[in-house]
Specification:
- With about 280 residues, the protein is α/β, with parallel strands linked by helices.
- It has one domain: Rossmann fold (3-Layer(aba) Sandwich).
- It has nine helices and 13 strands.
- Helix 5 runs parallel beside helix 6 and helix 8 runs antiparallel to helix 9.
- The protein starts with a strand and ends with a helix.
């Protein structure tokens, strides 16, 4: 049984309704809906095999849905491929980042879409734009002429996110942006997500890390077995509720621990009142 909590109304920039996707005998997505507003971070969570990656690939044009509709910026669209999504204003940063280690930051940001001045590549213009993009994210990159191989994991993620902004998108999807990062690097990436929200972009954050999700998201959409399982306003939910929605069961370690903590707090308060 799914549960839904009402969220503050925002201008919708991306809306998916009744999305179905089948691969042979496997029904990967069944009647899935998702809505993202401008200046809103929506976290998409679920267990392995819940359909998160399939849904992201439908939005980014890698897969075409068998049924359902996608509305972007107020009009119904058909995303025929990744290039269509990019030209519409839907950018995706996949988990592998797809960066070229031997090239510098500028070359990675504009790879395949280099600026030209006549027959020549406009290196000066691209370098200025690279610095502008990084400044909008308050990024900590010492130089845009450093090869990607010389950057930390958090800095690589910064470059990948900055690259997604080159085409002035309205929606940015981040697939596991903090995976395999340390504490400081994770904080750096979460700050970038905040910057994207401040710029009025709709952000879809796919993550297994509940702490990260609760730190930066406005709403949390839960998928389970290819279906909408629940939707929460982040400020009004707990980790135990999220885990219960993801797993479909309330008898798990996180819920039990939360109940014990609540009972201890209630007992301590009762003792204090008696004294």
């Amino acid at each position: 049984m799914s549960s839904t909590v009402e969220a503050p109304v925002r201008e919708s920039v991306l809306s998916l309704t009744g999305i179905n996707k089948r691969f042979g005998a496997v029904q990967a997505l069944t009647d899935v809906s998702l809505e993202v507003g401008a200046g809103e971070v929506v976290a998409l969570v679920g267990d392995n095999g819940a359909g998160k990656s399939t849904l992201v690939k439908v939005i980014s044009g890698v897969y075409q849905p068998d049924e359902g509709s996608i509305t972007f910026a107020g009009r119904q669209i058909s995303v025929g491929g990744p290039s269509d999504a990019q030209s519409l204003g839907i950018a995706t940063v996949f988990q592998d980042l797809a960066l070229c280690d031997n090239l510098d930051v500028v070359a990675n940001l504009f790879l395949g879409q280099e600026w030209r001045r006549g027959p020549f590549i406009d290196e000066v213009g691209m370098e200025k734009e690279a610095w502008r993009l990084l400044r909008t994210l308050s990024a900590k990159i010492p130089s845009v002429r450093i090869p990607i191989a010389g950057l930390s994991g958090g800095q690589r993620q910064t470059v990948a996110i900055a690259r997604s902004l080159v085409g002035n998108p309205k929606v940015v999807m981040l697939d596991e942006p903090t995976a395999a990062l340390g504490v400081a690097q994770t904080a750096e990436v979460l700050n970038l997500v905040e910057r994207l929200r401040e710029q009025g972009l709709g952000v879809i954050l796919i993550s297994h890390n509940m702490a990260d999700v609760q730190a930066v998201s406005d709403r949390i959409a839960v998928l389970r077995l290819g279906r909408n399982a629940a939707e929460f306003v982040t400020s009004q939910t707990s980790t135990a509720e999220l885990v219960a929605a993801i797993t479909g069961a309330s008898d798990n370690v996180v819920t039990a621990r939360a109940e014990r903590t609540t009972q201890r707090s209630a007992g301590a308060q009762q003792q204090g009142d008696e004294q």
